[in-house]
Amino acid sequence: MTLAVAASFLVVMFSVPLRRLASIVRGLIDLDVPLVTDARGYESVAREVADTLVRHGVDVRAAKPAWTVTAPSRTLARLGGESFRAYVPERFACFEGPRLHVLLYPNGLLLRGFAWETAWAHGLLVEALIAAPAYQTFDPKSQDIERQIRSVWAVVRENPPAHTDSRALESRVSEITRISASCP
């Protein structure tokens, strides 16, 4: 595992600064969005990312990610054993368009593009991925709050008209808010 982490870090140490520099030179913004998933949920999340962007008129198509993007995770999966393999997808999802580049990692979503398109895509995807098999936070306590929020949305989605102005759901949302406010 130590060798896997060291080898992955070596690739990242050189490739990420070069990619960031290339973005700066082109006048692009790189936005990293926390999005933690595993190999089982990865495909579903990737489909939702692509579907959401296309549904809202963002011009992107599936593309093959650069080897420098996939190498760190592949190295972890090969050298790190089963501990890492459960989090590395078979194929990485990458979408490119004239004004936006999107890459889904097992632990995040990279949006690279011009300021307006990147901000627009960020807002669309954060909202669309609420019910996806991924967490938008890294902290276990925050992930628990995400699970609770999802459970409320699942109830609402079952029968939206029946839950309009529901005192029980409003009370549950208030309770979740109090819990999240008390988290450090």
If you had to describe this structure to a student in words, what would you say it looks like?
This protein is an alpha+beta fold. It folds into 2 domains: 2-131, TATA-Binding Protein (2-Layer Sandwich); 140-182. It has 7 helices and 5 strands, in the order αβαβααβββααα. It has a 5-stranded antiparallel beta sheet, sandwiched between helices. β4 and β5 (108-113) form a beta hairpin. It is globular.
Number of strands: 5
User: What is the CATH domain class of the largest domain?
Assistant: Alpha Beta
Alpha-carbon distance between the two ends: 31 Å
Biggest sheet layout: 5 strands, antiparallel
Q: What's the domain count?
A: 2
Q: Poorly predicted ranges (pLDDT <50, ≥5 residues)?
A: none
> Secondary-structure element order, as H and E?
HEHEHHEEEHHH
How big is the Rg? 18 Å
Please name the defining characteristics of this protein.
184 residues, alpha+beta, 2 domains, 5 strands, globular
SSE blueprint:
Elements lengths: L1 H25 L2 E6 L4 H17 L5 E2 L4 H14 L1 H4 L7 E4 L3 E6 L2 E6 L1 H14 L11 H19 L8 H16 L2
Brief rundown of the structure:
The protein has 184 residues and is an alpha+beta fold. The protein is built from 7 helices and 5 strands. The chain folds into 2 domains: 2-131, 2-Layer Sandwich (TATA-Binding Protein); 140-182.
